[in-house]
Amino acid sequence: MIKAILIFNNHGKPRLSKFYEHYSEDTEQQIIRETFHLVSKRDENVCNFLEGGMLIGGSENKLIYRHYATLYFVFCVDSSESELGILGLIQVFVETLDKCFENVCELDLIFHVDKVHNILAEMVMGGMVLETNMNEIITQVDAQNKMEKSEAGIAGAPARAVSAVKNMNLPEMPRNINIGDISIKVPNLPSFK
Amino acid sequence: MSDVVEKTLSALPSLLSLDSQAGAGKLSPSSKLGNLIKGITELTSKHEEEKLIKKELESIKEQVASPNTTMRQMKEIMVRAIYCEMLGYQASFSYIHAIKLAQQGSVLEKRVGYLAVSLFLNETDEFLLLLVNTVLKDLQSTNLIEVCMALTVVSQMFPKDMIPAILPVVEEKLTHPKEIIRRKAVLALYKFYLIAPNQVQHIHSKFRKALCDKDPGVMTASLHIYLQLIKENPESYKDLTGSMVTILRQVVGGKLPLDFNYHSVPAPWLQIQLLRILAYLGKEDQGTSEMMYDVLEESLRRAEMNHNITYAILFECVKTIYTVHPKSQLLEKAAECIGNFVLSPKINLKYLGLKALTYVVQQDANLALPHQMTIIECLDHSDVIIKRETLELLFRITNAQNVTVIVEKMLEFLRLTCDDYSTIDLVGKVAELAEKYAPDNVWFIQTMNSVFSLGGDVMQPDIPNNFLRLLAEGVDNVEDRQLRLFAVDSYVSLLQGVTAKLPQRFLQVISWVLGEYSYLREEESDPGSVMRLLARLLDQRHTSTETRSWVLGAMTKLCSSPVSVALARDVCERYSGSLNTVLRQKAQELMILSQDTKLRARVLPAEGRLESLEVDSSLSFLDGYVSEALAAGAAPYKSPHQRQEDLVQEKALSLEPYGLSLPVSLSSCSITDRLTDRRSPTLLSMSSGLSGNSTELSHQEGSTTLKLEGVKRVWGKDGYLAQQQSAGETPTPLVELPNPLLSPQSPPSQTQKPSSGLEPDQEKRQLASSLFVGLGSHNSVCLMGRAETAPRHFRRKPRGESSSGASEGSSNSSHSSRSAAVDNLLLSNLLDSTTVASEGGAATTTTPQQTSQRTLDHTTSNGNPHVEGTEQRVEAGGPLSLIRGNGMVAVVPPTHTQTDPQTQQDLHPAPALERPRDLPLASHLPAELSGLARSEFTPLCSDQDSSLALSACRVYKEDALVLLVFISNNNDSALHQMVLQLTCKELEISCISGSPLKEVKGHSVSVCLHTVVMKRASVQVELAGLLSYQRPLGQPQAAQFSLSLSLKHFLRPLTVSTGDYGKMWLSFSHDLKQNLRLVTTEHQEPLTATLDALKGKLHLHVVDIIGSEGIVACRLLQGPGQWIWSVVAGCGQWRLVVVSGGWL
């Protein structure tokens, strides 16, 4: 299981932190600091695995990280995850970000924290790997983004009303159709469809 | 510098604009976030950042509180709040608004709301209850995105108690037409399984359906569940092996849609998952393993492309092959694979190769041989992680021959490392190896010295504990003496040097050893030298208070010579005024004991301290006191943990559905009770609030055991090292590899084999031969028998005594502090002539009877960890010197006084006239019954000339009533053809003495043992007996007698908690009411007195006293009945209500 996903820059500024296990706020901050401390002092030409975060579970867990330009992507996982598998997953994550933001850079992560979280949610759910296929992830995210655009188009209408329309139960609508004087009763017969 | 100024200047406008925005509140929100971030990134110090964020939070707070803020704005505000939280600043005021946003916003806003909620809150948060309805609504929404969001949030965090509310809806989603929904539903259910396994018990069949889902994505998701399930219980899922193998075969064969390919590898993550499942299924199961050989081989063969992800599959495959039942052909290929990993120039693969090697050498140490040169290279690798992994590997292949080299390598690493985690880990390993394989005393002590000085104060506390135990445990032979003496010598020389750098733990160990074993070197040096060294240590500034108390403890043991006494006095004067109470106490002890040699000799005998130590971990000597206090109305003990829980319970909302909760059913009971005039004591107890409800009490029992476990964990060694030890020593039957590389005949040639084209230099080769010695030809023997080849002396001795591990563990570690406890006791009872027989192993002078009594007590107390449960021991126990010795009042039942047999004899010297005058019947009690409570000897009948006398005695065993009939023959001639018959229609009597006795020689006593069980309960039963016998020169004769037994002889206390009592009260049907007079005594309250009387006379267990109601419980031996009694006091009368589960 994935315990936490952290992204911070070369100076240790957190850019994204997602914990799949409960830690107190202080511990979370300490974990970020400790992880940065551990990861940042490693050379470029050493392995991508680290053991020994004291806070995030000691010997049970390990840190798997990748360093891209100004950002560190760190996954804290327990022993039930494959090291290289997670390494691949980080790659998928970064590629997906790259595709979604078109040449992703640190600023994208800062200004679109919510979007990054949404992308992540399509990949990892509750600490379990949900989807590893970049195209699939992008499809899901796009579907949501499309909605965003359409919603922006009807921005004039009160949001409640829009969502009410969206949520309206369609099968109920034809029941009260009146054409002139003749009122057509629409029975709920399946054959009538 | 100018740089900083420039940055500040450029930050200024944004700060200003932020200020103005806070007032305006209507500007575009995205620019606000932008400004905030710009502001933050341009700041230079943490302090400035803090100020800025504080300001930002203020403005957010203002905005969320404003009623004019639209949901849309709220969404932006939330993003800002998320940002602030990520930086570590609390925005708790926004949590409720996040929930509101999730509740009321449009889909997009909802998404941000849910995101904020999942980042801000955790599953214990009470705010989440507000979300349950929203989640439920969204789960049922027709909008797929909403359903997805709800499922995501549910799998991130959901209160355990609320799972039933949404479970059906989530379950329904398993059949949703969209695969993404099904997939998320599966994962959500997996999460539920993790937090509340029994709640999803019923949908296991649906998991199977998910496994067979037509969409591979859903199937992949369901594998998460199966991995967990199979890991927990592989046996019940063996039938899935076929399906898993089929799935894997299809995946490997490329049957999945191309979408699932990653770098042209078909669904690698799925493969990894499947391989893990197969490993669990095939572990130690040949039949199942055979099913998967083919597919494993195929996976190995297919995964040959050069990409990280294929290596991930290979690695998993190798692990699986080595986990399942071995097949030589596969093992060979896997070993080759590991070779590729280890030799790979890619550092990640090297790491994994070492990991794989570490895993496999536990089964076959030979596998490390072909890679020795690589391993040596890795030892000097620039990457610390690789180095550590290599050491881990070496740790696994350590044997008695290479231990010195390996330990040296580890210590080398330890000296360089500065991170706590590796230090703790490695220090533990070195200590373990040193204990297991130490070649000699000198090496052992030196290694342990390095361990202590390098491990410092971060190492596991059990390392020094084990070391001290090892020193102390040995039998007193020459070897042990040498070891101790060497330790003492090395410590003395250490203390003579600079001690400032030594960690406190090490100093504590040193002072204990010096205190304990300095006498070994006493003859050859001046007696005060050690004392002086200790005193010097005491005065040093860097010595911590804890260490000081250890030092004082050691001094107490050492102050025998006049020089030392003078030194001690000096020290005492300084420390008896210390502000620290522990130190002051220790100083006082030192003072008194240094002056009183006799007392000192008694408290701290020089020899054999450890052997006689016995710790009463259950604190049973306090039971009397506890029961007294309970009887006097004190609230039962609650562990801190439980008190916490109670507090939480009080605060927390009741989450139980109303229909199920206990109070309602009870209150409905109370109505009927009132109607039938049968009041439930449980109800009373609940309303009086004295001891809380039943769940609380059952918790209490649980927490008592919990507490014990906690103690064990602190001191016990078992968990950590014993486990590793067993893992290391389990010789897994493994077929010899036919690989020529590994053939055992040619280890030298392997050593010379160049590993990667490089010519290894001589030094490395030498190192290799020293490292891998013992792994060669005879290695399999060595592996199997390596525990045996290790020097016996250093191996941890199995702890035979099974008394609680807690006491065992602590016996060494805190020896000095515990003997200090003894000192305390002694000091406080200095004039008390009673021997403190409790924990002072030094001062134990228990008689055999007492000891047996105590062990008996032990078993009882182990059975009932509940404090109250031990009450019966007070009652049934014989000479509880423990209790009396400590000045506590033992409750002595008035009817049958139990003292040990000897005193019994003195107290009742032949009370019966017919009884043979000086025949001590008590000495004829069978040994196994002698320690138990029993009645007096009742004379039954005798001959005219008193040549034959019969007496009876009842022994109240825990589970039976044993009736003993003593046949005393006072004549010269023997008795023959004896038959003893006991008859009674209410009783079932069975003879338990081996063979029915036939004859009794002259002037001797025979005993017949019978167990007696009541068939029907009656208050008084009459037992008729007939003994027929024959004298050598006479007619057959018969002696008739009768004996009455009362119901009370068959009653035993029933130890129940108040809660259980309440349940029984409701479930038992028969009842009986009676009005009786309360016993009144001068000192006690009538109710307490009555209960005491009941307890004494009838062997009842007093469960609780609630207000004016006392509840007691007892059970009838071997009968179906458990009786519970309730006594209600009121104006000199008491009403007795007896409820029975069986009959009355």
TrEMBL record, chain A:
<keyword id="KW-0653">Protein transport</keyword>
<keyword id="KW-0333">Golgi apparatus</keyword>
<dbReference type="InterPro" id="IPR022775">
    <property type="entry name" value="AP_mu_sigma_su"/>
</dbReference>
<dbReference type="InterPro" id="IPR016635">
    <property type="entry name" value="AP_complex_ssu"/>
</dbReference>
<dbReference type="InterPro" id="IPR011012">
    <property type="entry name" value="Longin-like_dom_sf"/>
</dbReference>
<protein>
    <submittedName>
        <fullName>AP-3 complex subunit sigma-1</fullName>
    </submittedName>
</protein>
<dbReference type="GO" id="GO:0030123">
    <property type="term" value="C:AP-3 adaptor complex"/>
</dbReference>
<dbReference type="Pfam" id="PF01217">
    <property type="entry name" value="Clat_adaptor_s"/>
</dbReference>
<keyword id="KW-0813">Transport</keyword>
<dbReference type="InterPro" id="IPR027155">
    <property type="entry name" value="APS3"/>
</dbReference>
<comment type="function">
    <text>Part of the AP-3 complex, an adaptor-related complex which is not clathrin-associated. The complex is associated with the Golgi region as well as more peripheral structures. It facilitates the budding of vesicles from the Golgi membrane and may be directly involved in trafficking to lysosomes. In concert with the BLOC-1 complex, AP-3 is required to target cargos into vesicles assembled at cell bodies for delivery into neurites and nerve terminals.</text>
</comment>
<keyword id="KW-0968">Cytoplasmic vesicle</keyword>
<dbReference type="GO" id="GO:0006896">
    <property type="term" value="P:Golgi to vacuole transport"/>
</dbReference>
<feature type="domain" description="AP complex mu/sigma subunit">
    <location>
        <begin position="1"/>
        <end position="147"/>
    </location>
</feature>
<keyword id="KW-0472">Membrane</keyword>
<comment type="similarity">
    <text>Belongs to the adaptor complexes small subunit family.</text>
</comment>
<dbReference type="GO" id="GO:0006886">
    <property type="term" value="P:intracellular protein transport"/>
</dbReference>
<dbReference type="GO" id="GO:0030659">
    <property type="term" value="C:cytoplasmic vesicle membrane"/>
</dbReference>
<dbReference type="GO" id="GO:0005794">
    <property type="term" value="C:Golgi apparatus"/>
</dbReference>
<dbReference type="InterPro" id="IPR000804">
    <property type="entry name" value="Clathrin_sm-chain_CS"/>
</dbReference>
TrEMBL record, chain B:
<dbReference type="GO" id="GO:0012505">
    <property type="term" value="C:endomembrane system"/>
</dbReference>
<feature type="compositionally biased region" description="Low complexity">
    <location>
        <begin position="737"/>
        <end position="756"/>
    </location>
</feature>
<keyword id="KW-0653">Protein transport</keyword>
<feature type="region of interest" description="Disordered">
    <location>
        <begin position="787"/>
        <end position="820"/>
    </location>
</feature>
<dbReference type="InterPro" id="IPR016024">
    <property type="entry name" value="ARM-type_fold"/>
</dbReference>
<dbReference type="Pfam" id="PF01602">
    <property type="entry name" value="Adaptin_N"/>
</dbReference>
<dbReference type="Pfam" id="PF14807">
    <property type="entry name" value="AP4E_app_platf"/>
</dbReference>
<keyword id="KW-0813">Transport</keyword>
<protein>
    <submittedName>
        <fullName>Adaptor related protein complex 4 subunit epsilon 1</fullName>
    </submittedName>
</protein>
<keyword id="KW-0472">Membrane</keyword>
<feature type="domain" description="AP-4 complex subunit epsilon-1 C-terminal">
    <location>
        <begin position="1052"/>
        <end position="1137"/>
    </location>
</feature>
<feature type="compositionally biased region" description="Low complexity">
    <location>
        <begin position="682"/>
        <end position="695"/>
    </location>
</feature>
<feature type="region of interest" description="Disordered">
    <location>
        <begin position="682"/>
        <end position="704"/>
    </location>
</feature>
<dbReference type="GO" id="GO:0016192">
    <property type="term" value="P:vesicle-mediated transport"/>
</dbReference>
<feature type="region of interest" description="Disordered">
    <location>
        <begin position="837"/>
        <end position="871"/>
    </location>
</feature>
<feature type="compositionally biased region" description="Low complexity">
    <location>
        <begin position="844"/>
        <end position="854"/>
    </location>
</feature>
<comment type="similarity">
    <text>Belongs to the adaptor complexes large subunit family.</text>
</comment>
<dbReference type="InterPro" id="IPR017109">
    <property type="entry name" value="AP4_complex_esu"/>
</dbReference>
<dbReference type="GO" id="GO:0030124">
    <property type="term" value="C:AP-4 adaptor complex"/>
</dbReference>
<feature type="region of interest" description="Disordered">
    <location>
        <begin position="724"/>
        <end position="764"/>
    </location>
</feature>
<dbReference type="InterPro" id="IPR011989">
    <property type="entry name" value="ARM-like"/>
</dbReference>
<dbReference type="InterPro" id="IPR028269">
    <property type="entry name" value="AP4E1_C"/>
</dbReference>
